[in-house]
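Aggregate trends can hide what the representation actually does to any particular protein. For completeness, the protein is quoted in full, as a sequence line and a line of structure tokens.
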Amino acid sequence: MADQTPSIRRSTRGLFLLLIIVVFTVLGFAFLYMLGETYLEQRPHDFLDSLEWAAETLTTTGYGADSRWDHPLMVLLVIATQFAGLLLLFLIIPFYLLPYFEERFEARLPKTLPNFKEYILIFHYSPAVASLIEELKRHGRRFVILEQARDAARAAQRRDLPVVLLDFVEDSLPADRIESISAVVANGNDEENTTLIMLMRELGYAGPILAF
């Protein structure tokens, strides 16, 4: 359970940051609108009315009683608020809300090596190892896919492959799980493969390593 904490904290931190940005954006435009209506349009508005206008404009739901402005600066403020609302809408959904709910409602990705008795560790799934995986399945050999990127891990998970999401550069590999690995297949780029092989050897792994 402890290994899932960092990702949960990152998503929660992102949601809090989003809420802070939205609140300050609405309050900022409300304050500017109140000043503009009072000193430029000569139609004094209290802050509550200005807050309602800012919320209606940023959410593109309408303007209520205020629908025309004469001063050029007020027109520019209204246009800027409209575009800011669209920008927030395009940022909130794909970059904050979707990842936040994805982490909570999709199946959790394992983030530590399994405690199997014996298995083959395959770093990074690609067509290059697809035939190898089919052979392992045919012979009843247990294997685990190791991925460093969440998208790659999700893709392997959608293929019904046993996968572990673990950045072995930042988080290192658990030494107590190394002895269960019967062979390692390094299928990343040269730099990733070299790092993985060096880490495995430093942890005392003496088994075979096949690098693509």
